[in-house]
């Protein structure tokens, strides 16, 4: 179960011309591995993540989530695919203010019409704080809940957008370690966008993005 | 409603304010409805209680009162096909005096043998309200205008144009105000044209009671405004609320919530608030109405309490739905990145 992008091109309207954010990007992220995407600001990292998350349709090219081509799915089918197969860890934890840590996880199953558990909180070391709401948690703790939430529906693909930008270096490293270990434990295909090259030690593949083009190394 | 219930509790201060507003508007609407029905009863109960289905007036601007009709008209209507009964009725407002007390009354005059009410010459039938105001007992003398008659108390409680009704005798050849018709399958318009009268169904005829038309019109208008205000307030609240939580909505959409799920969640939230607000408001209005007792004419029944409450909930849901519609427009893409 992997994530595959084949020759994905994405443009945004820019005045009377179009701005090319992604230029024929190829990416293969095997299950159980972490691919880090690095690059300067404006190079297209968030755009790449948005395409992989099915939040924007590319102008051309193909996205396969665990062998399923995304092309041609309607909005409902895309929402269902996001619920079941894609986990997203946002840059800001983006937790819902009214929900406790445990409920942030349980709502994910509820979106899919099932009863959910919050067992995964233990895996990210948050079992003790399960009853707290986001405003009662530190930035790092919120990010842990964020990761557990992304994994709770057992997705095939995990997309992580600059998870450490709100954290100090030590906490940031701990979060990247957590992402790496859960990727291996759950066998998901993980894309990790980061600007912090110090976090690249444990990842399986690093992709450099410059002006919307991939430079592998 | 997983998220909606938790938001209700989490933001209970804000939601409490909305419930309070809905509650107060419901109380106002409930009291106004009870009062409208009560005042309508004080204006029209005598006419509605006459039992006929149509009222014949002397002309298009004929009213209850006056002496616009005569024996000939009564006979013409009685002889019309489809008219089962045409009862003569004289209506006037006057003062009644008894034992040193006096009161404004509506005088309903009927001939001997009328199906509307049995009144013998020299007798006055006093309705409960009038007896109360005059303090008369059975057999006591009552003076109406300059005619003195013997009171016979009636248990019925009828009002016309805010005055309690007394029934007097209408001499056989006297002119009168209206005819009360009981019909089946009668061509009213044709008969009107032939006889030169103007006939209305009983429910339309009450609009020709001047005090009723004016009062009822303004009360109904006030209630209409309250309905509109309530829908607007609920709509405005949910507009602001939906904008406030559009970031959360974007996150939920990015996580895979369908738009239908989010709409149901939000509309369910609005319904819970409206139901709590109107239920409390209706309860309070009923309590106040009961406490008012006989001090003011106030009708406390299902029609005056539950119908306006149902309209408030319905209109509130429409207002909320229009506001909540913007959930569909929220772009899940905004959940990515730091632009929140
Ligand atoms: N919605 C949009 N409409 C138009 N242009 C956009 C839009 N989103 C991004 N862009 C442009 O596309 C390019 C790539 O943007 P993107 O957000 O993917 O960069 P990034 O690598 O994530 O940058 P950063 O590191 O600053 O977050 C940029 O030039 C940006 O201005
Ligand atoms: Mg970015």
Q: How is this fold's topology laid out?
A:
The complex is a heterodimer of chains A (217) and B (340).
Chain A: E1 3-14, E2 17-29, E3 34-38, H1 45-52, E4 60-65, E5 68-69, H2 75-85, E6 86-89, H3 101-111, H4 120-123, H5 139-151, E7 157-161, H6 169-186, E8 189-193, E9 205-210, E10 213-216
Parallel strand pairs in A: 3-8, 3-9, 6-7, 7-8
Antiparallel strand pairs in A: 1-2, 1-4, 4-5, 9-10
Helix pairs in contact in A: 3-5, 5-6
Chain B: H1 2-10, H2 12-48, E1 54-57, H3 71-78, E2 83-98, E3 101-110, E4 123-126, H4 128-134, E5 141-144, E6 147-153, E7 159-160, E8 163-169, E9 178-183, H5 188-195, E10 198-201, H6 202-205, H7 210-244, H8 246-254, H9 259-292, H10 302-324
Parallel strand pairs in B: 3-8, 4-6
Antiparallel strand pairs in B: 1-9, 1-10, 2-3, 2-5, 2-9, 4-8, 5-6, 7-8
Helix pairs in contact in B: 1-9, 2-7, 2-9, 2-10, 7-10, 9-10
Mean pLDDT of chain B: 92
What is the number of independent domains of chain B? Answer: 2
**What is the C-alpha radius of gyration of chain A, as a whole number of Å?**
17 Å
Class of secondary structure makeup of chain B: alpha+beta
Could you give a short account of the major beta sheet of chain A? Answer: 6 strands, mixed
The number of distinct β-strands of chain A equals: 10
Q: Could you give the order of the helices and strands of chain B?
A: HHEHEEEHEEEEEHEHHHHH
Total number of beta strands of chain B: 10
Gyration radius of chain B, rounded = 29 Å
Bound molecules: adenosine-5'-triphosphate, magnesium ion
Helix content of chain A: 25-40%
Average the pLDDT over all residues of chain A and give the rounded result: 90
β-strand amount of chain A: 25-35%
């Amino acid at each position: 179960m992997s994530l595959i992008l084949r020759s994905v091109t994405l443009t945004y309207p820019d005045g009377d011309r179009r701005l090319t954010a992604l230029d024929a990007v190829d990416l293969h992220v095997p299950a159980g591995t972490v691919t880090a995407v690095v690059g300067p600001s404006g190079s297209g990292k968030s755009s790449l993540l948005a395409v992989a998350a099915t939040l924007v349709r590319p102008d051309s090219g193909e996205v396969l989530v665990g062998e399923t081509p995304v092309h041609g799915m309607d909005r409902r089918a895309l929402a269902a695919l996001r619920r079941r197969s894609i986990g997203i860890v946002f840059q800001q934890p983006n937790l819902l203010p009214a929900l406790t840590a445990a409920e942030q996880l349980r709502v994910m199953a509820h979106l899919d019409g099932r009863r959910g558990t919050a067992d995964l909180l233990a895996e990210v070391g948050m079992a003790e704080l399960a009853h707290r709401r986001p405003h009662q948690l530190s930035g790092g703790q919120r990010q842990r809940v964020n990761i557990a939430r992304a994994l709770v529906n057992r997705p095939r693909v995990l997309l992580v957008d600059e998870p450490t930008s709100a954290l100090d270096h030590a906490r940031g490293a701990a979060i990247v370690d957590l992402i790496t270990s859960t990727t291996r434990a759950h066998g998901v295909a993980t894309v990790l966008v980061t600007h912090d090259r110090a976090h690249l030690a444990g990842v399986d593949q690093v992709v450099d993005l410059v002006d919307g083009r991939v430079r592998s190394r | 409603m997983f998220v909606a219930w938790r938001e209700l509790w989490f933001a209970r201060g804000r939601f409490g304010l909305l419930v309070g507003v809905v509650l107060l508007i419901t109380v106002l609407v409930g009291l106004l409805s009870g009062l409208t029905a009560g005042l309508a009863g004080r204006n029209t109960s005598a006419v509605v209680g006459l039992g006929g289905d149509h009222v014949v007036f002397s002309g298009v601007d004929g009213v209850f009162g006056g002496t616009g009709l005569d024996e000939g008209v009564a006979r013409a209507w009685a002889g019309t096909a489809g008219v089962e009964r045409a009862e003569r009725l004289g209506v006037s407002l006057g003062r009644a005096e008894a034992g040193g007390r006096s009161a404004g009354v509506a005088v309903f005059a009927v001939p001997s043998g009328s199906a509307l009410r049995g009144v013998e010459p020299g007798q006055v039938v006093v309705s409960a309200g009038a007896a109360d105001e005059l303090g008369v007992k059975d057999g006591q003398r009552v003076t109406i205008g300059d005619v003195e008659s013997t009171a016979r108390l009636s248990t019925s409680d009828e009002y016309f144009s805010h005055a309690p009704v007394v029934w007097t005798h209408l001499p056989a050849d006297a002119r009168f105000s209206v005819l009360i018709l009981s019909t089946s399958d009668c061509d009213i318009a044709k008969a009107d044209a032939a006889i030169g009268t103007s006939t209305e169904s009983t429910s339309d005829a009450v609009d020709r009671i001047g005090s009723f038309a004016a009062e009822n019109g303004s009360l109904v208008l006030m209630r209409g405004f309250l309905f509109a205000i309530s829908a607007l307030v609920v709509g405005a609240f949910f507009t602001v609320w939906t904008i406030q939580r559009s970031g959360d909505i974007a996150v939920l959409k990015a996580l895979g919530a369908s738009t239908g799920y989010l709409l149901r969640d939000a509309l369910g939230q609005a319904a819970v608030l409206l139901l709590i607000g109107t239920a409390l408001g209706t309860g309070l209005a009923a309590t106040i109405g009961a406490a008012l007792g006989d001090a003011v004419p106030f009708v406390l029944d299902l029609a005056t309490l539950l119908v306006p409450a149902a309209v408030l909930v319905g209109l509130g849901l429409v207002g909320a739905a229009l506001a909540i519609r913007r959930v569909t427009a929220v772009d899940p893409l905004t959940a990515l990145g730091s632009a929140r």
